[in-house]
Amino acid sequence: MDMSFCSIPHKCQCIDKKAKKLGVEYLYEEVTEIEARSGKIEAVTTDKGNTIGCDIIVNATGPYAPVVGKMAGIDLPIDPTRRMAYLFHPKEKIKYELPFVFNTDRELWFRHETGKMILAGKNIPETPGFDFDWDRDFFMEDVWPHMAKRVPVLDTGKLIRGWAGLYAINRVDRNAIIGHLGNMKGFYGAVGFSGHGMMQAPAIGKCMSELIQFGKYQSIDLSCFSFDRFQSGKLVFEDEIV
Q1: What whole-number percentage of the chain has pLDDT above 70?
Q2: Under 8 Å CB-to-CB from 190, ≥6 apart: which residues?
Q3: Residues 6+ apart with CB under 8 A from 148
């Protein structure tokens, strides 16, 4: 029986319904151990004490990818790294559709959100870790002043709220790791997107299904993003990480 385990941030009801119709079973359990024999995946154990036989695992667990990788004896060069975002209500709203603005000099970004509010953030060096605390002072001292300098009308307003999430940063070339992971037969991955995962997910899902089903990509050749590139030295560097 082939089974795959992945993290799903938000479940789409229409996809969920179609998947169940095709025989997919959702298990809301945490994998705590991967069992393998002779270099081949055999089963997983969950936090509920269940052992589930399988010969295929897809590691798509975002910032937790290296944790799952170690269960299979694979060292993935991925760091869970905090990114903060802030929702700002300008006193004078910009009537036109504000595009996504990325100031490369300041590593600052902002764009329109629902209700003409402003969603903003700024990239800073972060110590890797599972940190979900957001910093209000950082917005007031480092994000807001530079944002207002770029667009003066944003000089007045109110910070509504902020939050923090995790990027799965590939510390080698900051690009995705897709396909077989290491020499473990049946162990696949779609990890290390460094913040681009949600945008690339539909295409990646399609290509991963082809690789698993047919043994090769058919729609798009993603072999340049294979785990093997770290040994061959054929790295694929990504500079635009927002």
Answers
A1: 95
A2: 6, 58, 59, 60, 176, 177, 178, 197, 204, 205, 208
A3: 154, 155
What domains does the chain contain, in order, with CATH numbers? 13-77+172-232 (3.50.50.60), 80-169 (3.30.9.10)
Tokens at residue 117, please? 């509010």
Q: What is the pTM of this model?
A: 0.85
Give yes or no for a contact between 176 and 92, defined as CB atoms under 8 angstroms apart. Answer: no
The secondary element (H helix, E strand) that includes residue 53 is: strand 51-53
Beta bridge partners of 67: none
pLDDT tens readout for residues 79-91: 999 999 999 999 9
Distance from C-alpha of 43 to C-alpha of 53, rounded to nearest angstrom: 4
* Total residue count of the chain as it appears in this document: 242
**Residue 153: CB partners within 8 Å, gap ≥ 6?**
90, 92, 94
Calculate Rg over the CA atoms of the chain: 21
Q: Of 60, 16, 57, give the one whose Cα is nearest residue 187.
A: 57
What are 122's strand-pairing partners? 108
Strand 187-191, strand 157-170: pairing: unpaired
Distance CA(88)–CA(162), nearest Å, equals 9
